[in-house]
Amino acid sequence: MKKGQGLHAKNIHHANYNFDLLIEVHPPLRAFIFTNKYGTKTIDFANPKGVKSLNTALLFAYYDVSFWEFPDLNLCPPIPGRVDYIHYIADLLENSGIKEINALDIGTGASCIYPILGHKAHGWQFVATDVDKTSLTYAREILIKNKLEDTIELRHQQDKTQIFKGILNENDRFSVAMCNPPFYNSIKEARKQNLRKNKGLGLESLDRNFAGNENELSYKGGEKAFLHTYLYESSLFKKHCFWYTTLVSKKENVSSMYASLEKLGATSIKTIPMHQGNKITRIIVWTFLDAKEQKEWNE
What we know:
Low-confidence stretches: 197-201, 205-210
Number of helices: 10
Strand content: 15-25%
Distance between the termini: 48 Å
Number of strands: 9
Radius of gyration: 19 Å
Shape: globular
Largest sheet: 7 strands, mixed
Order of helices and strands: HEEHHEHEHEEHHHEHEEH
C-alpha cells in the first residue's frame, strides 16, 4: 500500500512499507500481511490487531524501540501521522530560536507515543500527563524497558475536567505543549460514528481500527469543549510555556479558538496545516510571551 501523501519532508514514512524489514524486526506482523489484487503486499487496515502490529514494527524498525505493549482496548496511534506533528513542532521551535527542548505532552495514553517519537527523532526531554492511572502504568513499563525513564517524566492528572491545573508546578518551564484532543462527546458517539464509517466502506467489522477507550476518545462537550478548556487554562500559565499547541480535527472549531485566544491575550496565533493522504487536519499554536520575553527565553 502506498501511503505518506503530504507528509512532512523530514518524515521517513513517505515510501511504501518495507514489509520484509518490518517482519524481520517484528515477526508477529507476518500473520496480518497478504497480497492484494494489484500484487502488492499490505494488511487489512480495518483489523485493529493488524494495525497495532504494523505500528509496533515501525517503532522497532525506525525508532530504536524494543518494547511497546499495552492493552488492545487502548488507542493505537498511527506512527507516520504522529511523527508528522513532531516534525512540524520541531520547525516551529527552530524558527523561534529554541535549542534545548523540554516538551509537555497532554494526554499521553498507554502508548506514550509523542514523548517516544519526540525523543527518538529530535532528542527532546518530556513531561507526559494523563487522567488514566492504568494507562500511565503501561506507559511507565514502556519507558523502563526502553531505558527512557530518565528523559520522559509521567504525571497523573487527578481531575478529568482540568488540563494544566494540578499538573504544572511553579518552576516548570516548557518549550512547547502538545495535545491530540479527544474528538467525541461520549464513547457512545464514537462508536456510532465508527459504525457509520465502516458501513460506508463496506466493512463488516464494528471495531475501530486504532481502538481507543473512553478517556482517549471522549470529553464532555467533545473536541470544542476540550479545546476551550485547554485555551483558558493555558492563559493561567502564560510564562510556563513558550508555545502551546494542539491538533484540531474539526475545521469549524478554528475561528472560535482564534477569537478566544485574542481575548485571553495571546501575542501570536498560527495555523499549521497537515495533510496525511486524504485526511486534512491542522495544528493551532499560540504564545502569550511578548517579543522581549521570547528573545530572552534562551538566556
